[in-house]
Amino acid sequence: MCGVVGIHAPGQEAAPLAALGIFALQHRGQESAGLAVSDRDGIMVYKDLGLVSQVLDERRLASLRGDLAIAHCRYSTTGSTHWENAQPTFRLGPRRSVAIGHNGNLVNTRELVAELPGGRERLVGTTDTEVLTALLSDEPGADLVAALTTLLPRVSGAYSLVVMDEGRVIGARDPYGFRPLCLGRLPAEAVVAERAPASAVAPSDPLPWGEEVAAPAPVAGRGWVLASETAALDVLGAEYVRDVEPGEMVVIGEPDGPRSIRFAESHERLCVFELIYFARPDSYLLGRNLYEARRRMGEVLAREAPAEADLVMPVPDTGAPAAAGFAEASGIPYRDGMVKNRYAGRTFIQPSQSMRQRGVDMKLSVLREQVRGKRLVVVDDSIVRGTTTRQIVALLRRAGAAEVHLRISAPPIHHPCFYGIDTSIETELIASRLDVPGIRDFVGADSLAFLSIGGVLDAIDLPRSRFCFACFDGDYPVPVPYDVASHKFVLEPAGAR
Ligand code: SF4
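Above: the input record for the complex with iron/sulfur cluster. Below: its predicted structure, written as tokens.
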């Protein structure tokens, strides 16, 4: 996962807006952050390891001048965590300069490297995004749009991109639309103004498809924003316009405003995990508010897998919406049984097992008086490796819980993801090795149940055909070559890490 933001704000400083937007997407990646800005003469990039607030401080932002910007926060799915792999990536190539922020994971990186004159030696980092950037800076074509139109059909896998040259910001989504990307309109004064939240605004009619169709005429002082999630629009006071469609590029440049260019047919398969777990609960995807979708998953789970218990409690904060739904549907009182240190990172997106392990200890503690002697239904939104869940059950038992009944508002994750979530090693997934009773025994719970795929669909009330469920059912929309399936360090020489 990663977060991306693009800003086109004629006459305004774009860097603070991009920073504010990417700060709202911090949950999508905590390893590095960065920003590229254009003053129409050249592109300047600043990026570093760390959180958005650490990397993009006020002093730094004041030095990044220009009215076009893209921003990125990274959670590594290709390549190690080091400075060279932070984004946006930038390349001053023989044909054009270009900067890219990428959410997703490509599955034909080796083939793309083979296209690159000079091959891997030309790269300073080891990410698929850098390969894409290098190819794009070399790609024949009259301009950046023409180059993207010929390059993107050769790129396979998951990508929601923000791309910029000196005069344009472009959003593009792969033909399956695995990762989200939306378009919004900045307010006339692009400061955080008092206005209705963008996501409360009903999606407008889509911009018409087809060849370079112009959007409504630009309004002076207004600009455009591209973002992974609508939550980033809210923080900017921006109005949600619509999602960038799978297989579509939205080109934002003057004087036309956004233009829609379709470079591939849409085969929409949005990652269902975005709805279950990853995106912010205040974001909207496919017209669904994610808090409400998750609350409904809890309701369905209570019907599918009831439990005799005294209390329903969430694993904070990820299980909270589903726990609320479970409590409402079951009639069992809802109560907090654990508190979270909000300054600790999300365990799942820490890059190594040892860091994840330390992360759990740092971030959760039990409210003993609430759980002592109680039969608990403990609700979480997923079990990936099982180690975090095991520690949570142990913490609750040490605090005196009489029974721990785990309810998970997602199906078991049997298969790895190659489209941008760091579960690409199958043996790390507990459900690939153990059945449900085996997982129950491993985590030490009295009972364990997962929401079914049908239950997820009931809760979100949308057809299965619109989603990727591959980590649950093994049906990969884009075939994954075996060597990509081996590990995420496809571009790193052995022993380099
Ligand atoms: S494999 Fe799973 S995590 Fe990856 S895109 Fe598909 S549903 Fe999402």
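Notes for the reader.
The chain has a mean pLDDT of 88.
Residues 178, 271-273, 417, 419, 421, 468-471 surround iron/sulfur cluster (CB under 6 Å).
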